[in-house]
Specification:
With 115 residues, the protein is mainly beta. 0% of the residues lie in helices and 50% in strands. Strands 2, 4, 5, 6, 9, 10 and 11 form a seven-stranded mixed beta sheet that branches. Strands 1-3-8-7 form a four-stranded antiparallel beta sheet, with no helix packed on it.
């Protein structure tokens, strides 16, 4: 059973930064792509970013230029660096991974942007 464990969420003021981490139970090379989604209260889960094993990363328009998603192969982690956070970024953030066996999700980590 594949597990994805997110960490790094919390409360931050508008304009602040957070870095989320996602640790898969297997090798990061087993998954392609990996990515991040989020779900705000009362809203559908939405895609945030995709990190392929090779090639360009892609981002939702709402986070482009502020968020950076990347893999650290040496540490077997996927990160989501979030800068210039806005109150509308408040959501539970989920790590996603796809392998030949299917799609996997983490349990989510809460990010709250508020003064």
């Amino acid at each position: 059973q594949v597990q994805l464990v997110e960490s790094g969420g919390g409360l931050v003021e508008p304009g602040g930064s957070l870095r989320l981490s996602c640790a898969p139970s297997g090798s990061i090379f087993s998954f392609d792509p990996m990515g991040w989604y989020r779900q705000a209260p009362g809203r559908e889960r939405e895609w945030v970013a995709t990190v392929p094993r090779t090639g360009s990363r892609i981002y939702a328009e709402s986070v482009k230029g502020r968020f950076t998603a990347y893999r650290d192969n040496a540490k077997n982690l996927v990160y989501l660096q979030m800068n210039a956070l806005k109150p509308e970024d408040t959501a539970v953030y989920y790590c996603h991974a796809r392998s030949s066996a299917g799609d996997y999700w983490g349990q989510g980590t809460q990010v709250t942007v508020s003064s």
